[in-house]
Amino acid sequence: MSAYDDLNRRTANKLNAVVVGVDYKLAPQYPFPAALEDCIFVIKFFLQDKVLAEYGVDTTRICITGESSGGTLAATVVQLLQNDPEYKDRIKAQALIYPGLQSTDTLLPSHREYEHGPILSREMTVKLACLYVAEDKALLQAALRNEHMPEGSRHLFKFVNWSDLLPEKFKKNHVYTEPVLGKLNDSYPALVDSRASPLLASDFQLQSLPLTYIVTCEHDLIRDDGLMYVTRLRNVGVPVTHDHIEKGIHGAMSFTRAPVFLQLGLRMRDRYISWLEENL
After folding, report:
1. What's the whole-model pTM score?
2. Distance between CA atoms of 66 and 75, rounded to whole angstroms?
3. Confidence at residue 1, expressed as pLDDT on a 0 to 100 scale
4. Do the beta carbons of residue 73 and residue 39 sit within 8 Å?
5. Which residue in 23, 118, 231, 268 has the fewest CB atoms around it within 10 Å?
6. CB within 8 Å of 222: residues ≥ 6 apart
7. Averaged pLDDT, 173-189
């Protein structure tokens, strides 16, 4: 949590807001859905009327936000809450900072262009995604070949088909080939679960989502996840502010405190907080 303490404190001070950081369990010791369950537990606890009143929270100005894998969890939490009658419309906005949103297709254009980084390499990213599901070397090797999806999952490919969902400028000369099915002997339900890959949610699930802010970075291996989510949300009428950082790298907003400062990260942080100020 210490890496985000400065950002959380600055956000709280600038917005005069209550900021709650969730210190969720980590894979591989606690695989999916442990981290998600922690986040949901904390948020539902905090959304109790008596807790909101205790902290003086304006119940009309609640936002769920996350960065990188935290963006994955934030996107999933908002999907689940907005489709839960008890919590529907309790969330005014979501902010997703260079989120990872799928592991269905491991050969997106950004995966190819930034295979060796910066910050995230393709092998490391795929390994982390696999460890979130299970400690299985066969799964990792299949995922690196884009051959990890199970039989019967082809219907999900339309939700992550970059040839349809990416803006033209990001397609370049890349040729779309869909993931290969049925090469992995073991079956992992998490691979077809939209709670693990929020991009797999149906249009029906997405259309009720709140006002959304998404940051993508040009030089980021998981750039295309965020770009496709922007397209899908806009296609179903969700109001989206998309902030694409042309010189951005993954994790830039983490470099806003000693010993490493990035001017780019400071600008991204300030733009993020400004959006929250204007929209909450």
Report:
1. 0.97
2. 8
3. 72
4. yes
5. 23
6. 98, 99, 100, 101, 110, 120, 125, 250
7. 95
